[in-house]
Amino acid sequence: MIPMVDLKRQYDKLKVEIDEAIARVLDSTQFILGPQVEMFEKEVAAYHGVPHAIGVANGTDALLLALRALGIGRGDEVITTPFTFIATAEVISLLGARPVFADICPITFNIDPARIVERITKKTKAIIPVHLFGHPAEMERINEIAIGHRLPVIEDCAQAFGASIGSRKVGAFGAFGCFSFFPSKNLAGYGDGGMIITGDSDLAREVRILRNHGSEKRYHHHTVGYNSRLDEIQAAILRVKLKRIDEMNHARRLNAEGYRSQILREEVIVPAELAGYTHVFHQFTLKVKDRARFVKSLAEHQCASAIYYPIPLHRQEVYKAAGLLRGGLKVSEACAAEVLSVPMFPELTQQEIARVCRAINNA
Predict the structure, then answer these.
(1) Bond into 190 cis (ω within 30)
(2) 353 and 283 in contact (C-beta within 8 Å)?
(3) CA 295 to CA 317: how far, in whole Å?
């Protein structure tokens, strides 16, 4: 079976360096907020061209702490996409605010800036675009809207580490960029992990306090915070991989070209890439009618597939009370019915890509 992602291949390739990095942490006996986290934060900040990066426990906490640092709370509204993993909306709800869903662009699967404008009210306090599947959202247009309405932007970059618009990396456009290092991500740890980047020193200080029980000085607490700290072992592993992130993303892009050149079915729509945008292909996501027959053919050819995401957030049980009825976000619903992701990871071979393409072409 060709899997959606093969973590063992990457570990085998980097085993010596990763094992040595872990051993150094174990030998140091510094496991929380030690030198590995500090160095990783500096390296991530430099990579993105921003002054501040703060390691946190996971990508969900990255979004949560960013919202808290901006003062988002009960009665506020935050505009985001319904076509993403639930964490993006979940953190809004956890703070007592209300997620307001704006429909997506059918080409990129990302939030449509024109639909954002329609959702802005006096209660709107922030916008969270998601760089879904590794393709950047239209940040220039989103920022224009945000500036015009004096709204902060939090970029959900969980699937897009290294993606860019022109020479500028995603995460560096908004007040905050939030990353996940979940094991399947482009820059992946061996457990949970997350990161927040920002150009604002005051916001960075607030996030550092919030992640550590509301404390800047030991045993002195000026706010109710969280236990959300990136651990030393994960930071050490991620530092090994960060050195190769551009190389790994390049391999993903080559794999995407292999798919594009060999998928011959006219009714299969392959992922788009807007001019001037660099897609890093966290997923290679097709749009197909009669999805079941393609899933069946892939399975018969021993090729994995996955559907991200089968139910848009406004149709989830937890958000039925939001007042957005079925049919209200038509593009998101249409995409949810047609998307199909196929195997994508840097170590995927051209022979495997050819086999996946045969399964698609023969469906």
Answers:
(1) no
(2) no
(3) 26
- The per-residue pLDDT for range 215-269, each reduced to its tens digit, is 998 999 989 999 999 999 999 999 999 999 999 999 999 999 999 999 999 999 9
Query: pTM for this one?
Result: 0.97
Per-residue pLDDT of 293-350, as tens digits, reads: 999 999 999 999 999 999 999 999 999 776 555 557 999 999 999 999 999 999 999 9
**Burial annotation 93-124 (CB, 10 A radius, 16+ → b, else e):** eebebbbbbbbbbbebbbbbbebbeebbeeeb
Pairing, β 154-156 against β 98-101 = unpaired
Torsion angles phi and psi, residue 53, rounded to 5:
-140, 135
**Max CA separation in the chain (angstroms):** 65
Strands annotated E in the chain: 52-56, 77-80, 98-101, 124-128, 154-156, 164-165, 168-169, 176-180, 194-198, 215-217, 220-221, 277-278, 284-287, 339-342
